[in-house]
Amino acid sequence: MRINAIYIAVCLLQNSPAVDAKPLGTSQSSLQVPLEDLDPTHHQQASSKRLHGRFLHITDLHQDPHYKAFSSTDEDDACHRGKGTAGTYGAETSDCDTPHTLVDATFKWIKENVRDSVDFVVWTGDSARHDSDEKIPRIQSEVLDTNRKIADKFLETFGDGEDLSIPVISTFGNNDILPHNILLSGPNKWLKTYTDIWDKFIPEEQRHGFQRGGWYYVEVIPKKLAVFSLNTLYFFSHNAAVDGCALRSEPGYEHMEWLRIQLQFMRDRGMKVILTGHVPPARTDSKSLWDETCWQKYTLWLQQYRDIIIGGLYGHMNIDHFMIHDTKDIDLLLFGGKSVAPPRALMDDEFTIQSAGDYLEDLREDWSVLPNPKNLPISMDIGEEDLDYSELYNASDEKKIKKDKKGKKSKKDKKKDKKRKELKKFGGPWGERFIVTNVGPSIVPNYFPTLRVIEYNITGLDDTATWSDSLVESSEQIDWLDQEDEDRFNVDANVDSTDYIYANDDNASAEKKKKHHKDKKKIKNPTPSNPGFIIPSPPSKDAPPGPAYSPQSLTLLGYTQYFANLTYINNLEMTSEESDDEIDTEKWRNGKHGGKVPKDDDPNPRAFHYQVEYDTFTDPIYKLKDMTVKSYLKLAHRIGKYKPQKGDRVKDGDILEEPEVYEDDIENRDNDKKPAYIPEDESIEDPENHDIDAEKKKPKKHKKKKHHRKQKEKNRVWLSFVQRAFVGTLDEDDIKAFDDEFERHAEESLNPIPHRVDDVHGLEL
């Protein structure tokens, strides 16, 4: 029977004293740390006076106009009435929404500490409260009024109240409409109203398109970088008013077509793109948030436009984490009716402690079978300037290796063969088989209020005009609804690519069909027979990798995570109140102070501030060199290991201690700088086999010690990943309980874990 470790964690959390809930590496007396106070040696210095190389990601504010301090956090009261422990700035770790005091204090802190150091803002939706109180149901006027107030906050903070000084890219969440989750195809009253609310955020020439589907983009650095706002409600599996992205009649199909055409438009102009939205494309072997046809198209678009897409930023899930998409899961036959997607259950609309924990466990299991980045024949840390692109791509193609007269491969060809096989596992030396999406934690204090400042590379952009200096001319925008000749984007297509596939299109010209028939022979996998289904052109084979894969201008470098410790700031003194209620991790959460009452009704909060939880530039645990795919592959591989390397091991009681640096860690870092050598007699299919065999050959006297390590030593990186997912609201005992469920994997990790078998319908691009 599967142990519910998350249930145990919540029990421990709610029975622990308030002072025990401390975020990683902080204390309750910690003061706010503005961007300027961080160690400058670990942060990028702006290469010009105009661009700072930073932007803010903020999500899920969920302001509640009915919130009352010292009200009850019970489900029947929802921080709206009764007597309880709802603090001045919110009821942390509960399911109550955000008081206006927290929203006001957050924007005040941003204005004083962040505003003058960022180039743009990504705001990924869900500003209205949840519909969780049957006695005060939500109404349309309240939802829209809340969003107007939040929009005004952005205008006041990043402008003069009338106009913006830097761009803010907005999107709406599943709770910003009524009923929640349900949005009909546009144009409709909701899209029309939000066009008015966000008239300062949406470029004027794109408002017509926004009214039709709720999508738009902003050139935050004119002619260099665009940030796209996607309407993920048309992809959301819980939106019963729509049906995926496969049928032309569906708004999801229309949205994906708009995205494809605009991405090609950006490629033609030499621009790069960041994708943003509310509901992330979360997907495991058993569950998903998006409709499968939308996930398939989105992942295909990401793969084909990997030369211009920098990354994806989303909210909704409230937990701090990242996800890795495998393009081997792309199934083109799904769009021709010749394949059926494996059944996946819907992920919970709103994550509970249990569902979030199960989801993180699923991610770890997926990452445990990732290929080992250390076995790449070409190091993932080698500098871009040292690489010969044409040679590397030739090494990873499917050319047949020449044999000698006896039909045997030479030693040189054998090495090339191994090199080719290793590169194929990653889709090339930069890991282009995989795609990374980041999900930011929320302002609503389901855990602790959190926001994130992300840094990006501005090398070579010294003299670039900023958004406030230059407005994009309408002639440079493209209205996809008026675009009749889609082939205009195919003029410069690579002759070796699949280009556009016109499948069974009776309206296609004879010349197009002839070209399609010729190109079809080059495609190794089956193509869909759905009329009009278009596969975008991939990057040219001799083109350098995009900023998501190789460090260059506009590559994301890292981020600093800020949080507000409401346990410390609210400063509540409480007494216990007997209660027979059991904790149910699948339903309403009363929060860490559930079952208690304040000693007095006189609020005495401390000064409000955000402080640093962690930053990836100095973090000794994640060790993220940057936010490229290869860096995240290394991190995911370490998180997924049930038998971690020496530097990632931790004993019970030492989880929150600073990790030690071992000699083998230094050696591994040195080895990463040179090509990895794979012995002739070592299996490349199981990079862990060599170490496993060595363990099995140890003398018996070491077996007892090895068994002790299995029981007492855990994976520090995984435990830190869990701790950060819940924004430091779990103490050390809670985190250890979280890992108990995985003890059974200690034995399994001694046996070879087979690599995933590629889907027969996968796409070789």
Characterize the structure shown:
This protein has 765 residues and is of the alpha/beta class. Among the domains are: 54-64 and 99-378 and 417-471 and 533-559, Purple Acid Phosphatase, chain A, domain 2; 645-655 and 711-748, no CATH class. It is built from 19 helices and 18 strands. It has helices at 5-15, 100-113, 140-157, 189-197, 207-213, 251-268, 292-304, 353-367, 389-396, 411-426, 510-520, 566-570, 629-640, 663-671, 689-696, 703-712, 716-725, 732-739, 745-748; strands at residues 54-58, 120-123, 168-170, 216-221, 225-229, 272-276, 287-288, 309-314, 321-326, 345-346, 434-439, 450-456, 556-563, 574-576, 596-598, 611-615, 649-651, 713-715. It has a six-stranded mixed β-sheet with strand order 3-2-1-12-13-16, with no helix packed on it. A six-stranded mixed β-sheet has the order 4-5-6-8-11-9, sandwiched between helices. A hairpin with a 3-residue loop joins strand 4 and strand 5 (225-229).
Features:
765 residues, alpha/beta, Purple Acid Phosphatase, chain A, domain 2, six-stranded mixed sheet, 19 helices, disordered C terminus
Name of the top-level CATH class of the domain at 54-64 and 99-378 and 417-471 and 533-559: Alpha Beta
The helix content, as a percent range, equals 25-40%
Q: Please report the distance between the alpha carbons of the first and last residues.
A: 42 Å
Biggest sheet overview: 6 strands, mixed
Low-pLDDT segments, ≥5 res? 5-48, 395-401, 484-525, 578-586, 661-711, 749-765
Into which percentage range does the β-strand content fall? 5-15%
Q: Enter the CATH topology name of the domain at 54-64 and 99-378 and 417-471 and 533-559.
A: Purple Acid Phosphatase, chain A, domain 2
What is Rg?
26 Å
Mean pLDDT: 77
What is the number of beta strands?
18
Q: So how many helices?
A: 19
The coarse overall form would be globular
Name the CATH architecture of the domain at 54-64 and 99-378 and 417-471 and 533-559. Answer: 4-Layer Sandwich
Structural category is: alpha/beta
Spatial arrangement of strands, main beta sheet: 3-2-1-12-13-16
